Recover the amino acids of this structure.
């Protein structure tokens, strides 16, 4: 199982730089709600969703997925639809 | 006030006092705040990239706004079905509306917090807010909506 240091990564055969989906902390969203949304959007187990949620809470951000830009945009859109603060960032070469 | 899940998976809220009923009726109103900071919070930048931001504004943000409005309308419709009784009002949140309720409650909480400039310290405060002053009332409202949202989240497990 990938750890928090090696988030979900999509296998890529192309030369495109992968993109990270990053979730940022905000003081209002309920921790339980954030975990629920992680489970629904990424299909995480309850344990993995809570690990990422705690990383967001304690470190201010968590990389929850890495892969192709198109899919990363879709994930960010889904997270925004639940009012989570999420961005996509190009991975460092 | 009592909350209990029904056999069908709905959430039944009964014996709602007038004060809390007013707060429930306030959900779609607070969620539809026109405060400029609220729009910014509801529609954050997706990336530090002008091209992505422009596409997002044109293609994604209208969809998000429609979704947010749809959640508010679902909640408003359910609130029209509130039964006023002697002991207090009763509200049933149907299982298939729980996502809309969680969404609208989240909108309302975020909007109130944005308008009030609430930060980490306000949200983590262990002292009960004083509903007698406007800021305390706003914090109380955020907390009440959070309690309802938490109940709905727990029903998902």
């Amino acid at each position: 199982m990938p750890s928090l240091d090696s988030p979900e990564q999509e296998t890529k055969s192309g030369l495109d730089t992968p993109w990270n989906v990053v979730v940022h902390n905000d003081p209002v969203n309920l921790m339980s709600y954030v975990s629920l949304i992680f489970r629904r959007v990424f299909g995480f187990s309850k344990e993995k969703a809570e690990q990422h949620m705690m990383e967001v809470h304690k470190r201010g951000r968590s990389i929850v997925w890495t892969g192709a830009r198109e899919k990363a945009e879709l994930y960010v859109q889904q997270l925004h639809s639940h009012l989570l603060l999420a961005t996509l960032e190009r991975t460092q070469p | 006030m009592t909350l209990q899940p029904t056999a069908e998976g709905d959430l039944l809220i009964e014996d709602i006092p007038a004060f809390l009923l007013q707060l429930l009726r306030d959900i779609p109103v607070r969620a539809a705040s026109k405060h400029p900071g609220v729009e910014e919070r509801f529609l954050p930048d997706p990336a530090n990239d002008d091209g992505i931001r422009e596409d997002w504004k044109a293609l994604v943000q209208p969809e998000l706004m429609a979704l947010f409005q749809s959640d508010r309308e679902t909640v408003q419709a359910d609130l029209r079905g509130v039964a006023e009784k002697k002991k207090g009002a009763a509200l049933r949140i149907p299982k298939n509306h729980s996502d809309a309720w969680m969404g609208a409650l989240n909108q309302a909480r975020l909007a109130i917090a944005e308008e009030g400039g609430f930060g980490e310290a306000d949200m983590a405060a262990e002292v009960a807010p004083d509903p007698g002053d406007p800021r305390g009332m706003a914090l109380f409202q955020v907390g009440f909506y959070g309690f309802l949202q938490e109940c709905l989240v727990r029903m998902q497990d």
Observations:
- The radius of gyration of chain B is 17 Å.
- The interface with chain A takes residues 41-48, 52, 60, 63-64, 67, 102-103, 106-107, 109-110, 113, 118-120, 122-124, 142, 146, 149-150, 153-154, 156 of chain B (CB under 8 Å).
- Chain B has a mean pLDDT of 94.
